[in-house]
Amino acid sequence: MGKKRGHVHNAPSNDETMFSSQDPKPKRIYQLWPGNNRFCCGGRLVFGPDASSLLLTTSMIGAPALTFSIRMAFMIGKTSPVFHSLILIGSLLLIVLDFTFLFLTSSRDPGIIPRNKEAPESEALNMLRNTKLPRTKDVLVNGYTVKVKFCETCLLYRPPRASHCSICNNCVQRFDHHCPWVGQCIALRNYWYFICFISTSTLLCLYVFVFSWVSMLEVHGKMLLMVITDDIIFIVLILYCFVVVWFVGGLTVFHLYLICTNQTTYESFRYRYDKKENPYGKGLFKNLLEVFFSRIPPPMINFRDWAQEESDSEVGSIASELDRAFGPRGGRYDMELEIGDCKNNRGGLHLKTLEYDDNKNKNSNIPGNSSFDVRSR
């Protein structure tokens, strides 16, 4: 009998065990991001925390639209095949466009602003301890004085037109509103797609409404009672589209008004620019150009970048100072601090924030391309 071969298993040495425990696998920024966003495809897609509402929105659009398309497909072989074929192609095109704009609106970074690790200046941190902060700071935008606020959650001095979304827990550039139907903030980088989404939704409703009537009258004649009793599918589609078009159509008209006057939904309800001067208005033609023909700026955060790790003791000291001054950092405070060059760290997160320089106002990458400078009151 031959000898049995011995199987030798090399146990990891103490050095290897220590190295593996002290040097964990590096993580990307999206894996450590402190906001409430949901990331897919390795951080390439950025959704809001209520992204599950997309299922409801998709079903409300797709169910009636696809039902109409299937009904048109069955009618091609009965009467006017060319006419109904063209109607079918038009409905399918609108459906594809609508779902495409919905996906681009909900899965795109709306303009999230990087967080800071600490308050912009050491003097400001001392002021945090004493809770003696100026309530507002004046900012000059296109010759008008507006007030901007310091975000206690993100520890940064918000740019003009930016706001902190309490649902996503992020400061966002040119914040318009958080839309529960798309499960995402509507802001600087996805506003154009949102306008296209609600516009195509309105067109799709009108399209199904009109051609449902036309198809019924063509097949069943012009006797209204006979039409109602013979084709219940078209009747349901007509009633559904009649109700929905008031919502999406009204929303589309409202946002066209906001575009023409260069306002956001947040500004329209809070600041009432129709009763006072709008510092961002540039005239009808330039306002339309700014939304429809301006290049969408690149994201301020590449969520797929590797996060740079720092010591936990430094992070703990910063958090404890803020907690002593104002309690848990989950709360929101309307406070103003000086602008500086800062970085953010939470669990190894190391990010760079906006830099504001009066000498670079003309080339500033602020939403709306507005020049500004900061003045203390």
From TrEMBL:
<keyword id="KW-0472">Membrane</keyword>
<keyword id="KW-0808">Transferase</keyword>
<feature type="transmembrane region" description="Helical">
    <location>
        <begin position="82"/>
        <end position="105"/>
    </location>
</feature>
<feature type="transmembrane region" description="Helical">
    <location>
        <begin position="232"/>
        <end position="260"/>
    </location>
</feature>
<dbReference type="GO" id="GO:0012505">
    <property type="term" value="C:endomembrane system"/>
</dbReference>
<feature type="compositionally biased region" description="Polar residues">
    <location>
        <begin position="362"/>
        <end position="377"/>
    </location>
</feature>
<dbReference type="InterPro" id="IPR039859">
    <property type="entry name" value="PFA4/ZDH16/20/ERF2-like"/>
</dbReference>
<protein>
    <recommendedName>
        <fullName>S-acyltransferase</fullName>
        <ecNumber>2.3.1.225</ecNumber>
    </recommendedName>
</protein>
<dbReference type="Pfam" id="PF01529">
    <property type="entry name" value="DHHC"/>
</dbReference>
<feature type="transmembrane region" description="Helical">
    <location>
        <begin position="54"/>
        <end position="76"/>
    </location>
</feature>
<feature type="domain" description="Palmitoyltransferase DHHC">
    <location>
        <begin position="149"/>
        <end position="270"/>
    </location>
</feature>
<feature type="compositionally biased region" description="Polar residues">
    <location>
        <begin position="11"/>
        <end position="23"/>
    </location>
</feature>
<keyword id="KW-0012">Acyltransferase</keyword>
<dbReference type="InterPro" id="IPR001594">
    <property type="entry name" value="Palmitoyltrfase_DHHC"/>
</dbReference>
<feature type="region of interest" description="Disordered">
    <location>
        <begin position="357"/>
        <end position="377"/>
    </location>
</feature>
<feature type="region of interest" description="Disordered">
    <location>
        <begin position="1"/>
        <end position="23"/>
    </location>
</feature>
<feature type="transmembrane region" description="Helical">
    <location>
        <begin position="191"/>
        <end position="212"/>
    </location>
</feature>
<comment type="similarity">
    <text>Belongs to the DHHC palmitoyltransferase family.</text>
</comment>
<keyword id="KW-0812">Transmembrane</keyword>
<keyword id="KW-1133">Transmembrane helix</keyword>
<dbReference type="GO" id="GO:0019706">
    <property type="term" value="F:protein-cysteine S-palmitoyltransferase activity"/>
</dbReference>
